[in-house]
Amino acid sequence: MTKRIVIALGGNAILTKDASATAQQLALIKTAHQLAVLLTANSDWQIIITHGNGPQVGNLLLQQQRGSNSDLPAMPLYTVGAMTQGAIGFWLANALTQAFMERGLTNDVVALVTRTVVDGQDKAFQHPTKPIGPFYSPKMAKHLQALHPDWIILEDAGRGYRRMVASPQPLNIVEAPIIQSLVAQGVTLVAAGGGGIPVVHAGKSYAGIDAVIDKDYSAAKLAELVDADILLILTTVQNVYLNYQTPQQTKLTHISVAQAQQYLDAGHFAPGSMQPKVQAAMNFVRRTDKTAVITSLDNVTGYLQSGLGTIITN
Fold it and tell me: Which of 217, 188, 168, 209 shows the shortest CA–CA distance to 100?
């Protein structure tokens, strides 16, 4: 029986210190080979992939604004999100096709430009919390704040300063019927990249709205829609920790949703970092009674062979 896994890739799977297109494509080739291990080792597994785009959106916005003038105005945030979703989807589809061919796999790969419905009155629009773009030093953050007084620039989990934008909750995925059809045909699908292009209902159609949806929340929604057995959220660390980066740091291996809620309520997980990953995992488990896993991309094999990582169940 086929086991279906939705994989949410973190930014480290795409963007290295070198933000060039070539470097990002090389990073994705490495990522694709790591993911192909799943299918090589488990012929009855099917993977559906989503990914972040925060660094790419921020970098492209900066390029847009630096070259903006009355004849060539900068694109709005939701359009930049669509542009990066298309680019990363293209790179990842190419990388997966190559990795599959090298392993003798015949899986079809499709990257689908995906729209995610949000509520235009979501309170997130009054309290932006989603980091986009690169990390800045305090000096650079102050300089950018002066250049862009409408931006909100805050410290991000002790790693530097980043621009923050609204991150509303995903309500639905417009392409859900198409996604379900493709998945049923056994296609290896790349969908809802960057959380999906945020749209709101506009009469009988949809309109883009400036925001960046957290890819982990969209991954949970995607996993629910495709009836996934596992939601696998990949990040930079092998496990979720309590009291992270302190002398009291404690590794979490297998926890219940109730325990995860207690830790969230106690403020153990940083907003914009581990908090949405844990919350997204909990959302999926609560809605489906299935399993969510949070671990690192480099630990995919370790999770497969030994169950290493943080596993969340009811």
Answer: 188
The H-assigned helical ranges of the chain are 21-41, 54-66, 77-102, 138-147, 176-184, 215-225, 257-265, 274-288, 300-306
Active site residues: 11-12, 130, 215, 277
Residues 102-138: tens digit of each pLDDT: 999 999 999 999 999 999 999 999 999 888 888 889 9
Please state the φ and ψ torsions of residue 268, each to the nearest 5 degrees: -75, -25
CA distance linking residue 236 with residue 234, whole number of Å: 7
Distances 243 to 18, 240, 265, 269 between C-alpha atoms, Å: 31, 10, 13, 8
With a CB cutoff of 8 Å and minimum separation 6, the contacts of 56 are: 14, 15, 24, 84, 87, 88, 194
Distance from chain centroid for Cα 128: 17
SS3 label, residue 245? coil
pTM to 2 decimal places: 0.91
